[in-house]
Amino acid sequence: MSALQPVETAGLVPADLDLRFRRPLMGYFLNRVGDRAEAEDLTQQTFLRLLGADRSDLANPGAFVFRVAANLLKDRARGRALGEDRLLSLDDEAAAPAAPADHLTPERVLLGREDLALVIEGLDELGGATRDAFVLFRFERLSQREIGARIGLSQGAVEKRLMRATLHLARKLGATR
User: Are 154 and 176 spatial neighbours (Cβ–Cβ below 8 Å)?
Assistant: First the structure.
């Protein structure tokens, strides 16, 4: 069973997330952070969290989307209060502080290596511009506007490539679980 299946059963088809929620989320974040580039990044981060969440028994998808967005803002504020000015991770487990080295069991190390190999393989399967946009966004922490300027794409094209890459990697990782 794919990790993306609950999205479809909850009425939140990944391909429709952008059409249905991008504009309302952008307005929500823009009113709260006052910076368009940051609002774009927070909107994309909301989509990433939605892809990793269990929504199999979701009654109100719209309310859930904005609850995720509100929690993202709370996490952002908490991180800034602690001096961490960074984007949040894809899911809550990854957003938690890393476990001390003495809690790393051989099994966890092996699973982590397998996941890393799948991510690298998944990145290699992506087209050049899609892979570049994803790497610049997730690892270099560039805004979508900066990515577009760097690789010669419109902001909308960057958003679509980020969604495509995220879906591809989520399916790749979800197929093994």
Answer: no
Q: In Å, how far are 6, 102, 150 from 106, measured between CA atoms?
A: 31, 11, 41
Residues 6+ apart with CB under 8 A from 164: 126, 130
Asked if residues 18 and 31 have their Cβ atoms less than 8 Å apart, the reply is: no
Helix (H, G, I), strand (E, B) or coil at 82: coil
Q: Determine how many CB atoms are found less than 10 A away from the CB of residue 95.
A: 13
Separation of alpha carbons 88 and 75, rounded Å: 8
pLDDT of the residue at 12: 59
Q: Please determine, for residue 33, whether its predicted confidence score (pLDDT) is greater than 80.
A: yes
Is the pTM higher than 0.85? The answer reads no
Taking CA atoms, 162 is separated from 109, 144, 154, 168, in Å, by 28, 9, 12, 10
Q: Which two tokens stand for residue 92?
A: 């809550």
Helices (H), the chain: 5-9, 14-33, 36-52, 61-81, 92-95, 106-125, 128-138, 144-151, 155-174
| Rg of the chain in Å (alpha carbons) | 16
Residue 35: DSSP 8-state: -
- Mean per-residue pLDDT for 141-163? 90
Residue 100 Rama label (left phi>0; alpha psi -120 to 50; beta): beta
